[in-house]
Amino acid sequence: MNLTLALLIAYSILLIAIGLWIALVLKSAFALVGIDAYLSLAAFYQRKRDFFLEGVKAEAIAAGTPAEIADKALAGAAIDQKVLSRDRSQGVFRQTFLEFSSRTGSQARLDTGLQKIREYSEVFARAEQEYGVPAGVIAAFWAKETDFGAVQGDFNTRNALVTLAHDCRRPELFRPQLLALIKMVEHGDLDPATNTGAWAGEIGQVQMLPQDIIAFGVDGDGDNHVNVKQSSPDALLTAARFIQHLGFKRGEPWIQEVSIPENLPFEKSGLGGTMTAGEWFALGVQPRDGETAFSALPASLILPQGRKGPAFITYPNFNIYLEWNQSFIYTTSAAYFATRFGGAPAYQKGNPEPGLDTDQMMALQTKLQGLGHDVGKIDGILGAGTRVAVQKEQQRVGLPADGWPTPALLAAL
C-alpha cells in the first residue's frame, strides 16, 4: 500500500468518525427538542415526565411517606392538556360588581344557604365557638365556590397537580401541593385515581388546596378522616379553621353597607386607606344598619362602581377575603353576601355612571401607562393597578376620584 492510498484511507476513516460524532451530537440535540428520528416527541415528553415523577416520589419518601404509598399516589399520573389550556388562558374577570354579585348572590341561593345553616346548625355553632367564624362567612364561601357542594369540578386532582407542577408557569406553587396530595393519600383521605376538583387543584365543597387541607383539616363527622369533598361537616370546619388562620378576628365586622354624601374626599377611598370608621362617619358616611360600635377600627371606603353605585366600609376582617381570592369583585361580593345570612338587606344598587367597554378600557390603560402608571398588562380589565391609576388621574384632571373609569376620564386624558 503506497503512502497516498494509506493517507486516503486514513482520511476516509477520519471523515466517517467525524460524521458519526456529528450524528451522535445531532441526535442528542434533536432529542432535546423532540425532532430526532430516533426519539419521538411523545417519548421525549414521557421520559421528561417520568424523571419529574421520580423526583417527586423521592421527595415524598424523604418526607416520611412510605414508597408504596408514593407509588400508589402517582401510578397512572398523566399530563392533562385541558389543565394546561386553562392555565394559559385563564378566564378574566370582566363582570362588574353589580353583574357578578347579582348572579352569584341571588335570593334563591340565599334561601338555600339559610336552609343549610339550619341543617348543619351544630356544625356552624362549633365553627363559631372554636374558631370565631360566623356561619354566614363560611356559608358565603360554600355558596360562591361550589353552590353548597353541588359543583366541585371534574378534573382529576392528581393529574391537575402533576400537570401544573411539571409544566407550568408556577411550579414552585404546585409541586408542594402535589406532595401534600400524596400525604392525603397516605392518610386515606383521597383516592388519587378518582378524586376530582377544580383545574388548579382545589378540592372539595369550599375548594381548598391540599397543603391547606393537610394543615387545617378538621374531622367534623368523627370518622377519623378529613373528607372535604363528601363530608359537609369536614369541609365547613376545615374552612372555619383556615379562615381563622388567615386572620379573622372573633366578634369584629368585615363589611358594612353605607350611604355617602356627594362632597367626600373620594381620593381617600379605596382599599388600604389610613382612616378609621369613625373618621368616615364624621365626614357624613352613614351605615345603613345604623351600627357605629366599631368606629375605632381601621376602615376603608370602597366604591366598586364609583360614587353613584353601591358603597361599603370594610374592616380588617375583610382582608381574609383578599387572602382567599385576590379578585376585588369576588371578595366584595362574597363579603357582603356573608352579611345577608346574618340578616342584612340586599344592597342599594344606586345608579352608577356607565363604565368602559373592553376596547375603551384598553385605550385608557394605554394612556395611563403612557403617563407613567403601572397598570400591568394592557388587557381591558379593571384590576388593582388600573383602579389606583384611575383614581390618581381623576384627581389630577379635577374629576371625583372614586376609582371608577368613565368615558369622561378617557376623554379628559
Descriptors for this entry?
mainly alpha; 18 helices; two-stranded antiparallel ribbon; 6 strands; disordered N terminus
Strand order of the largest sheet: 4-3-6-5
Distance between the termini: 89 Å
Radius of gyration: 28 Å
Secondary-structure class: mainly alpha
Helix content: 40-55%
How many strands, which pairing sense, and closed or not: the largest β-sheet? Answer: 4 strands, antiparallel
Low-confidence regions: 1-20
The average pLDDT score comes to 90
How large is the share of residues in beta strands? under 5%
Number of alpha- plus pi-helical segments: 18
Q: Total strand count, please?
A: 6
Q: How would you characterize the overall build of this protein?
A:
- The chain has 413 residues and is mainly alpha-helical.
- It is built from 18 helices and six strands.
- The strands form two sheets. Strands 4-3-6-5 form a four-stranded antiparallel sheet. It has a two-stranded antiparallel ribbon with strand order 1-2.
- 53% of the residues lie in helices and 4% in strands.
- The chain has helices at 3-33, 41-62, 67-74, 81-88, 97-104, 107-119, 121-131, 135-146, 157-166, 171-187, 210-216, 232-245, 277-282, 319-324, 328-340, 358-370, 384-397, 407-412; strands spanning 155-156, 196-197, 255-259, 286-287, 300-302, 312-314.
